[in-house]
Specification:
By secondary structure, the protein is α+β, with helices and mostly antiparallel strands. It has three domains: about 5-170 and about 365-415, FAD/NAD(P)-binding domain; about 195-295, no CATH class; about 450-614, Sandwich (Jelly Rolls). It is built from twelve helices and 29 strands. Strands 4-3-2-8-20 form a five-stranded parallel β-sheet. A hairpin with a 4-residue loop joins strand 6 and strand 7. Helix 2 crosses helix 3. The radius of gyration is 25 Å and the shape is globular.
Length: about 625
């Protein structure tokens, strides 16, 4: 029986609900576009979901960019919102709770219609323009014909784009193609492989393990280049091993079922080696969970209006249309994975600075209304090895979502806005306003700048710092290149001796009309923060409760002629960005006062920005 066909319409269709697709859909919806989000799995999150369970890493290089004295490289915006929500609501570090946080974030947006278990399977074209996507939901025997103005492929494998005939590359370019020193001498079709993770638990008694007859057999010599429990269970064995990798030598799309079968044999063989060969002290350990969905690293990479290359990444080349940034090392693995026992499981080439990711790398070269976000953006294999990680995918997704909404507002295609500096500027300002970071760029408030004072402040935390248009500390050699850095703490910090309450006051020479007031608090972005099932990784975090720096209880007083005309009281805050609507009406004021009553642990108040929407 053919599937029932239902016709739907939206302004922006996002295919793929992983770390790129979720922020993309949310960002487009919050910027005013009507959005349909398709996800071919029963849960959101992709490689970060309960089906795969990889922790989200990004430009901070899992803490590798240093302490609070360095640039705070942890990604802001929607992915920070998700991380903070998870840290507070999921102290038990449940993978399913993370699924729920993502699901709730999407469901909370009135402009998004979410379709789980739904796959984009075809398109209808009008010349080079996509008009309609055909999608199937086998669980309900339904089909959908979805008309949209802009289509965003966040599927990882590029299913939507390839159906539309968008050009792509799969494999490794040679050194000469983009003048890349890290590329192989000869081009090939090899890619990075996939991984199955596991979780293990220690019990109070011996726990047997009998490997299936088809499991692979490994010796210590086979695993000599892959750190594991060689003299007792090591820190991290409870989480599994990312180096249980295989499949880059075959087609990671067409051979994905075979890759899954081989990875099961490899993963169970590695566990059998740890459990049943001498020297690992694993008698009381047992598998708690393991995946059946391969965590895929690489497949198709689309060809956009700009191909990001090794030089762009390593030299931090300025991109005038930057919508996001990266900073993870160029993380290359042997394409044969565990079948390359004499090669290191990973060679990470340091990226000296954070680098721009341009909108042009997220817009199809040939299809004007097709965009992409995630690991399928327009990048060489070498550049992709840095941009592929999930927190970077998330900020690219947010940048693409905002760009798509601005294209709709301006009645332009994504291809057209790439050539519109005014629209690019508006996109960048929207991203900066919503606490995204763009290298060397500052938010430019359209309201008249206020005079800012405080009840006290530290030497590096003057009250006027909230007017710099930056929402993170920028210091040290591992942030922006010197010629593009805007160094400073960029936040007000009250004096520790003052205690609480601590007060920050904004005063305007002439009355202004305000509809919203936005605050961006300190959330300790010099630390690692992401859901992980590795105990050793979580030791570097403040997990299970709000971040200690974050303002917890505060009062906002809006004043006119010395009188308070509106008051907002907040308790138990744990979020970084708070937007308060003023009774859904405009208020005329000449002064705003933020009174901090308590933080979540820090002995002084720390605020990056206060913006009164006029």
């Amino acid at each position: 029986m053919p599937l029932t066909q239902t016709r739907l319409k939206c302004e922006v269709l996002v295919a793929g609900g992983g770390p790129a697709g979720v922020p993309c859909a949310i960002a487009a919806a919050r910027a005013g576009a009507s959005v349909i989000l398709l996800q071919d799995r029963p849960v959101l999150g992709g490689n970060a979901s309960s089906e795969v369970r990889m922790h989200i890493v990004g430009a901070d290089s899992s803490g590798g960019r240093g302490s609070r004295l360095q640039t705070e490289a942890r990604e802001g915006g929607i992915i920070e919102e998700i991380r903070l929500e998870s840290a507070v609501r999921d102290p038990q570090r449940s993978a399913s709770m993370f699924d729920l946080v993502l699901y709730e974030k999407v469901r909370a947006e009135p402009n998004i219609k979410l379709f789980l278990n739904t796959t984009a399977v075809g398109v209808e074209m009008d010349g080079t323009t996509i008009r309609t996507v055909r999608a199937d939901r086998q669980s309900t025997e339904d089909g959908f014909l979805i008309d949209a103005d802009i289509f965003v492929d966040c599927t990882g494998d590029g299913r939507l784009g390839v159906e539309a005939g968008a050009p792509f590359h799969m494999g490794r370019e040679d050194k000469q193609t983009y003048q890349e020193s890290l590329a192989p001498d000869k081009a090939d079709k090899l890619t990075l492989g996939s991984t199955l993770l596991f979780q293990a638990k220690k019990h109070d008694r011996p726990m047997p393990f009998v490997a299936p007859p088809w499991a692979r057999h490994f010796t210590e010599d086979d695993l000599k280049m892959r750190p594991h429990a060689t003299d007792g269970i090591d820190r991290g064995t409870e989480y599994g091993y990312w180096w249980v990798e295989w499949g880059g030598q075959v087609d990671t799309i067409k051979d994905n079922e075979m890759i899954r079968d081989e990875l099961l044999a490899i993963m169970l063989g590695v566990w059998d080696h740890i459990k049943n060969q001498p020297g690992h002290c694993a008698d009381n350990w047992a598998l708690q969970w393991f995946g059946f969905l391969p965590g895929k690293r690489e497949s198709r990479r689309f060809i956009g209006k700009k191909i990001l290359t090794e030089a762009d990444v390593v030299q931090s080349v300025h991109q005038p249309d930057a919508i996001a940034y990266g900073g993870w090392p160029i993380d290359l693995h042997p394409c044969y994975g565990i079948d390359a026992p004499d090669e290191s499981a990973c060679i990470a080439h340091e990226v000296p600075y954070l680098f721009d990711i341009p909108l042009r790398s997220c817009v199809s070269r040939d299809i004007p209304n097709l965009m992409f976000a995630g690991r399928n953006i327009s990048a060489s294999h070498i550049a992709f090895a840095s941009t592929r990680v999930m927190a970077t995918c998330a900020v690219v997704g947010q940048g693409v979502g905002v760009s798509a909404a601005h294209a709709i507002k301006n009645k332009l295609t994504p291809a057209e806005i790439c050539d519109q500096p005014r629209v690019i500027h508006d996109i960048q300002q929207e991203l900066l306003r919503t606490d995204c970071y763009l290298i060397g760029r500052q938010f430019q408030d359209k309201c008249d700048p206020p005079h800012v004072t405080a009840s006290s402040h530290q030497l590096d935390g003057k009250p006027e710092n909230i007017l710099t248009g930056q929402t993170r500390s920028i210091h040290g050699p591992k942030g922006a290149p010197p010629d593009r850095s805007l160094p400073g703490s960029h936040r007000w910090m009250s004096g520790p001796a003052e205690g609480f309450p601590a007060t920050l006051e904004l005063r305007w020479q002439q009355p202004i009309t305000a509809r919203t007031i936005e605050l961006i608090f300190d959330t300790g972005m010099h630390r690692v923060l992401t859901l992980s099932h590795s105990d050793a990784y979580v030791e570097h975090m403040q997990w299970g409760h709000p971040q200690s720096e974050t303002v917890r209880d505060y009062t906002i007083e809006l004043m006119r002629d010395g009188h308070v005309v509106h008051t907002i009281d907040v308790i138990h805050n744990y979020l970084r960005r708070r937007v308060h609507e003023i009774n859904h009406e405009a208020i005329v004021l000449d002064r705003a006062r933020i009174i901090v009553h308590a933080t979540n642990g820090l002995e002084f108040a720390s605020i990056f920005d206060v913006r009164v929407g006029c």
